[in-house]
């Protein structure tokens, strides 16, 4: 019925009551559809009157929304708040479902080590509670069903609880110490989470329980028995054994060696054992067997590499191929349990068996004896320049070096035999032209010493120029030095001593006698030059006499005594002023002082003249009965 008062003007203070209105009820705002409570907004007011809030059309509402009537009408009233709908009403009977699983250890079983248990996780949106239910499997023997009853579940130690925002596919959640892996969810859950702006992970494949899958396989597998008769093999080949001789070469590893073994192959059951070959006093424990008698696998199944052979016996299920008699061939290597043996020989029965069974008639013995390697040639390190080459080389022969061996017979035959030569120094310096040197070649040791006689007013202190040593020829190599010998000394020969060149001018008479008695060592030209020179002079050279050069063995004794005194009395303080004291008394610079003055000077300098060596030195330096050559005496106390 239409309102009869519609269109009447309302004057201020007046109103009209519709006497024809009989319905004063309010519109229904709560209803049920398919069993769910649904809230709906009323479109009419009390008695069916249209509500003022819905008088405008959508176009009018859009036009008003685009304008700002605040300046004209002032601040608008706040829109009425949306109707409050409680969660237990909005999310009543709305549940999220997730498929998950967890792994459980099985410690007391030999058939399975762990178990996979599949569960369903339910999340109730109305009160944010969760429950975990495991589907019941018939005859599983495991308490199943509701694992965790419906409740709010703690997420961490701070008291936070799991929310539907924390759930997703492909994640792990921990509930009461158990870790669940969520792999999938139903369609309603997927649509709900995506409508709330959550990006779902891709679904995963549900893990299967290995023991349950094993139970699905057939209980029995029937295998057709082989036609091979093991009893016939036992009766035919009983007590028939193939014997092989092998070696195991482990010399490539540290402390490894080459060891001998005997390999037995039993034809009756195709088993193998390996025996060690012991020798007397070989230092090894007397174990007869390296490997007990057993069947040897040749090719294992791919999954049987980790088979615990130390605990369980290996069977045909783990082996594709076993070792047979045709695998043992003389002259070929054989790997058994990771150790490679080389078969080098077998016994006559084995040769006859291979000839009859396999037609192999040629099984020669292989020589495995190792030949001693040739000795390594010892090469000396480069010469460092200190001492003689022979002395330095002794450090390479022994940890504690010993003195090189000497030719004792040569030393006994040539004892006290010395060849002396007079030589001049070849030098561009004018002061060196008049210097003369006495070369002493000791035949017992092949050493050379050089002595320069002191010359008065020459400005050069004479004395020992070079101690006894071997002199290397200038063009010889350092590793193989060639020393000067007696054949290199003759009149006019040039002798180079450590960079200094000397020319031989004269010799003593003993040199000619030695050269004539050993003419094979000298060239004819060298021997002829010495003979002509001796014939020309007819006597010892005047130069040697004027220079007071003693060519008798006393010079050698004096040089040896001076060396001994220098080693024993080298640190005495009075040696520095000794020469100056003697030169002060020798006003003529003759090099000689009388004995009385000599002993006074020695007494003032506290020289130990009572020493036996000093007494012998005074005797050798005495010239006549009352004169002493103090140059040689002072030389014994100088550096």
From TrEMBL:
A Pfam entry, by short name: DM10_dom
List, alphabetically, the PROSITE patterns matched: DM10 (PS51336)
Chain ranges of the DM10 domain: 92-197, 238-358, 415-519
Naming one, the record's GO cellular component terms include: mitotic spindle
Q: Tell me yes or no: is Repeat among this UniProt entry's keywords.
A: yes
Q: A GO molecular function for this record?
A: alpha-tubulin binding
Q: Is Cytoplasm there in the keyword field?
A: yes
Compartment list = Cytoplasm, Cytoskeleton, Flagellum axoneme; Cytoplasm, Cytoskeleton, Microtubule organizing center, Centrosome; Cytoplasm, Cytoskeleton, Spindle pole
| Keywords for the protein's UniProt record, in alphabetical order | Cell projection, Cilium, Cytoplasm, Cytoskeleton, Flagellum, Repeat
Q: Name one GO biological process term.
A: mitotic spindle organization
Which Gene3D superfamilies does the annotation name?
2.30.29.170, EF-hand
Q: How does it assemble?
A: Microtubule inner protein component of sperm flagellar doublet microtubules. Interacts with the C-terminus of CACNA1E. Interacts with alpha-tubulin.
Q: What is this protein called?
A: EF-hand domain-containing protein 1
- Per the UniProt record, the source organism is Pteropus vampyrus (Large flying fox)
Q: Lineage of the source organism?
A: Eukaryota, Metazoa, Chordata, Craniata, Vertebrata
């Amino acid at each position: 019925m239409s309102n009869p008062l519609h269109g009447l003007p309302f004057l201020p203070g007046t109103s009209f009551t519709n006497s024809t209105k009989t319905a004063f009820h309010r519109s229904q705002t709560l209803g049920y559809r398919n069993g769910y409570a649904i809230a709906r907004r009323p479109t009419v007011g009390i008695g069916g009157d249209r509500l003022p809030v819905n008088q405008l059309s959508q176009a009018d509402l859009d036009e008003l929304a685009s304008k700002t009537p605040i300046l004209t009408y002032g601040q608008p009233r706040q829109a009425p708040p949306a109707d409050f709908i409680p969660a237990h009403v909005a999310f009543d009977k709305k549940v999220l479902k997730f498929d998950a699983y967890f792994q459980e250890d099985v410690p007391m079983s030999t058939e399975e080590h762990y178990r996979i248990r599949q569960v369903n996780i339910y999340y109730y949106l109305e009160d944010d509670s969760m429950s975990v239910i495991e589907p019941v499997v018939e005859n599983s023997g495991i308490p199943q069903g509701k694992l965790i009853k419906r409740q709010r579940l703690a997420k961490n130690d701070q008291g936070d609880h799991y929310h539907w925002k924390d759930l997703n596919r492909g994640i792990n959640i921990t509930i009461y110490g158990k870790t669940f892996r969520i792999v999938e969810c139903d369609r309603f859950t997927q649509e709900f989470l995506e409508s709330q702006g959550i990006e779902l992970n891709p679904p995963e494949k549900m893990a299967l329980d290995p023991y349950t899958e094993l139970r699905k396989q057939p209980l029995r597998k029937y295998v057709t028995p082989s036609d091979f008769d093991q009893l016939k093999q036992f009766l035919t080949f009983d007590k028939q054994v193939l014997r092989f001789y092998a070696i195991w070469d482990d010399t490539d590893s540290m402390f490894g060696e080459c060891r001998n073994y005997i390999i037995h192959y039993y034809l009756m059951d195709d088993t193998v054992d390996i025996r060690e070959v012991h020798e007397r006093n070989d230092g090894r424990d007397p174990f007869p067997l390296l490997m007990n008698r057993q069947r040897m696998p040749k090719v294992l199944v791919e999954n049987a590499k980790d088979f615990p052979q130390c605990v369980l016996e290996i069977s045909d299920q783990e082996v594709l191929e076993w070792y047979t008699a045709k695998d043992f061939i003389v002259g070929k290597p054989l790997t058994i349990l990771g150790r490679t043996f080389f078969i080098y020989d077998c016994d006559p029965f084995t040769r006859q068996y291979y000839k009859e069974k396999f037609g192999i008639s040629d099984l020669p013995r292989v020589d495995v004896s190792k030949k001693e390697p040739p000795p390594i040639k010892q090469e000396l390190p480069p010469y460092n320049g200190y001492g003689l080459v022979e002395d330095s080389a002794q450090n390479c022969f022994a940890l504690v070096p010993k003195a090189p061996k000497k030719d004792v017979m040569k030393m006994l035959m040539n004892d006290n035999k010395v060849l002396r030569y007079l030589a001049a120094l070849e030098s561009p310096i004018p002061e060196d032209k008049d210097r003369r040197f006495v070369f002493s070649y000791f035949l017992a040791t092949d050493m050379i010493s050089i002595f320069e006689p002191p010359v008065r007013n020459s400005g050069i202190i004479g004395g020992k120029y070079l101690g006894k040593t071997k002199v290397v020829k200038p063009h010889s190599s350092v590793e193989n030095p060639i020393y000067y010998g007696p054949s290199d000394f003759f009149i006019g020969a040039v002798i180079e001593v450590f960079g200094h060149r000397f020319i031989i001018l004269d010799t003593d008479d003993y040199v000619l006698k030695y050269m004539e008695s050993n003419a094979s060592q000298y060239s004819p030209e060298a021997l002829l030059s010495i003979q002509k020179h001796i014939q020309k002079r007819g006597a010892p050279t005047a130069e040697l006499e004027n220079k007071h050069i003693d060519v008798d063995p006393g010079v050698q004794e004096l040089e040896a005594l001076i060396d001994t005194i220098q080693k024993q009395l080298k640190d005495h303080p009075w040696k520095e002023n000794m020469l100056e004291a003697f030169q002060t008394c020798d006003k003529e610079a003759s090099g000689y002082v009388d004995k009385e003055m000599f002993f006074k000077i020695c007494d003032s300098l506290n020289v130990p003249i009572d020493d036996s060596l000093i007494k012998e030195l005074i005797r050798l330096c005495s010239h006549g009965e009352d004169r002493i050559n103090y140059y040689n005496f002072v030389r014994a106390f100088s550096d």
